[in-house]
Amino acid sequence: MSKLNNQKLSIFSLGGVGEIGKNMYVLEFGHDIIVIDAGLKFPEEDMLGIDIVIPDITYLDENKDRVRGIIITHGHEDHIGGLPYVMKHIQAPIYATKLTMGLIEHKLKEVNLLHHTKRHIIHSGSELKLGKFNVSFFRVNHSIPDCVGVCVDTPEGIVVHTGDFKFDYTPVNGEIADLAKMASIGERGVVALLSDSTNSERPGYTRSEKEVGRAIAEQFYKAEGRIIVATFASNIHRIQNVFDAALEHGRKVAIIGRSMANVVQTAIDLNYLVAHEGLIVSPEQINQLPAEEIVILSTGSQGEPMSALTRMARSTHRQLDIIPGDTVIFAATPIPGNEKLVSRTIDQLFKLGATVIYGQEGVHVSGHGSQEELKLMLNLMKPKFFIPIHGEYRMLRQHGKLAEETGVDSQNIFLIENGDVVEFQHGEARLGAKLPAGNVLIDGLGVGDVGNIVLRDRKLLSQDGILIVVVTLSKKNGTIVSGPDIISRGFVYVRESEELMDDSVQLVSQTLQRCMSDNQIEWSMLKTSIRDSLSRFLYDQTRRRPMILPIIMEA
Amino acid sequence: MSKLNNQKLSIFSLGGVGEIGKNMYVLEFGHDIIVIDAGLKFPEEDMLGIDIVIPDITYLDENKDRVRGIIITHGHEDHIGGLPYVMKHIQAPIYATKLTMGLIEHKLKEVNLLHHTKRHIIHSGSELKLGKFNVSFFRVNHSIPDCVGVCVDTPEGIVVHTGDFKFDYTPVNGEIADLAKMASIGERGVVALLSDSTNSERPGYTRSEKEVGRAIAEQFYKAEGRIIVATFASNIHRIQNVFDAALEHGRKVAIIGRSMANVVQTAIDLNYLVAHEGLIVSPEQINQLPAEEIVILSTGSQGEPMSALTRMARSTHRQLDIIPGDTVIFAATPIPGNEKLVSRTIDQLFKLGATVIYGQEGVHVSGHGSQEELKLMLNLMKPKFFIPIHGEYRMLRQHGKLAEETGVDSQNIFLIENGDVVEFQHGEARLGAKLPAGNVLIDGLGVGDVGNIVLRDRKLLSQDGILIVVVTLSKKNGTIVSGPDIISRGFVYVRESEELMDDSVQLVSQTLQRCMSDNQIEWSMLKTSIRDSLSRFLYDQTRRRPMILPIIMEA
User: Fold this and answer.
1) Which of A275, A288, A389, A391 is exposed most, by the fewest CB atoms within 10 A?
2) Cβ atoms within 10 Å of B458's Cβ, excluding its own
């Protein structure tokens, strides 16, 4: 069992490779461990067939008796999506704000873990004692309500984890970030600040969500037919903006898409979203109301192939068709990697005669603070040590530069990777051990069983397909009793490649005969000979390299 | 044989689906056909294993005796890359400017078509008579030198095809666009303008390449160690900017990457690029010169996995390592779809200690005109009919709006797809027939043989792999003489899934026994039974759906 030095404060991320420090952060002192966030990420392009990726929690699993609590900063997937897996191993209680907990409970229910999990609702004024750690919170703004930053009093001083944040001075729900509380934490002295680096490359300030409200309202003035708004299901403030605009313009709101319906229901139940009585109508009523009296709120802002909006754009939605006169508002920007899907959807909507509002029309702002906000956080917290988190390496680096500008000693800035442990003792910090922190790939029910070999095969199969050679040999004398037969998938269009297939069969027959004239031959060598000669022949004929799988049966 | 109405002028694109009118445009009148450009495009994400995509030239092939010439506007791949395929079918002469022809010849040589192809070098003052068409040219600016727009005098009036263009009033080589000539074409009266829509969504003007020169020179002032510049091989002006900056700062230039070396050599040979004597050194000399006296010009600005820069970033380049103090300049922006590759490369370079210049530092400008330039072109040409080309549908639509603003009648704007024919007769235009204009996929030596079935199989294989069930049955009595054996690839990690595999074999055995108790059973039904029962079982156990391939041998 691995265990870190228990005389020190250790801080590390278990967020897997790629974006750094995003999905799970851990603080450890002596016998006590606390975890901040337990999120997932979506697979990279080369992780073929993988559904989601979660942090490697080997270290936590080995030390699970010492985990005093799991603190969740907010309810986005990349902060809560790993809980259905983590809670199978770790029995520690979860601490989260009301809305965040509502979303977590929905997840845990799906995997039948809800009743086995201890849950405590906190608010920005809560104070917890988790072993040697005293934990308090401060409210931050983001693209989902009820977000907190975490302040941890440790024997080595105060550590602050900002969570995802921006400063919105005119938030839709009026709840601005706890500036005074942050300032007082800073006054008490912060030994280490862990701060969100997502937008560290963007100069200036991120605009207020209230401006998005005005931009959406403006589109409502212009629209003459139906209005369809696509946004992230969890962006409750933006949905409130849509509700407000609908009420103002005498339109009803229909919600389509399962995740959108779920989140809206949770948010209304928990009073995070105010829907005037009669404002929401069922999707069935869409076609019964006049076009100018309806707003459709939908998922699909990322061009997700199965989402309601994408199906409408392709004219494959069961109930809803796009009609000329519709106005479709993309109240979101494409997440990197989704640009082409979104662009295809926009094109299809235009072709169906819709007016599409996308890009630079002010109907979206980021949920993350830009450079001036990051500097404000640094100025409030005045940390001795700084660990930029949440972002690619270059973003952490840029955030590090901002920290230097605000007066943090460049020696005291740690640009680290997941698994790197920073140790604090006697007011000093240094890079310690490296813990396992790879990606754990989830494919269907399999957790971590798909590794490099399976992925390499999927990649090969995806490029040039597979060719299977089957032959049955006699047990007695090794003569061919059946075959060779060749079957291919994903290699060539077989109906138009008969000659190639016939030639391949002949080549395999010749290879078999040549090999079998040597009585000592082993099957593995036979297979290698078939694979080599066929591979050369096929590359020569087609310049393709299908996977070749010789199967020898004995009868 | 299909043939269009020969009393009319017909205009259409054969550029495949996706971006519209990009790769090949055709004009036809009576017995005469001329082709403008013959490019390729790169495969979409869902075209697994495909190398490149070319236009469907079925129509040209059927009418090849009537093709009077192939006119190439400039030397980019999406305008010349289809020629090695097209020239196998069409014997018409190619017309292109000197640099463009140099690049074309390089391509034709590779496929042994150079000496079979008639080639004519033109310049912006050339005039051609190709059947009923009188063709002249006008110089435009773009991100490669020697670009022309095409002016075609037809019996139905003047048709103008802009090619890719922008207006650069301070071009690196001093050759500004032929404003006066364009104006005089406009004065004579243009019946139809086909104009580049790539940047129709960008307000304002595209900046001059000369500004990029200044931005690059600025980085040369700051850099203390080696400088590595990554850009598109074909951006000769930018390479000239790098040469000029190197000369000014007493640095030598080493060129790495095959395509970069090829294009630079062609451009120097043809006098499009001026390299001071002794400026260029061989890659071997890089490590012999002091760091502050070297510039490395490299491919890899798109994060291409096999490029020199990407290999240096991964520390897998044979000769070159990134060392702290290196400055790497990305003098290019990521093409949509390449964002993640580029971002990964930037991160790796930072980690190796390099200073990386990317994004908003002014070291790149687009080669395509923005909205004000598109309006300038419209004002110069004053067309009666307008066909926006080169772009996604929404860009064509935006370009159409710009045309309306400049006074083109909205009835006279054709937003068309590839294969849509616009017919001109007696001063009127209308949408005519639809010609085949799909994508032709090239995979290795195969041209068009990979279709939907093969791609669907590759997609399936890439997601959950394949499971092959082999069994040999006796010819005499149908009993099992060998197997069933199960082999899988890309499905699960077999060494850790023995139980699952054993259970699967048992399930197949049971299915076989159940089926064979019915003596009448056909093999196809046997296969279906195996596939169904195994598929259900595996989905239940793993939530994965591998391709299942039952193979029954007879011995």
Assistant:
1) A288
2) 26
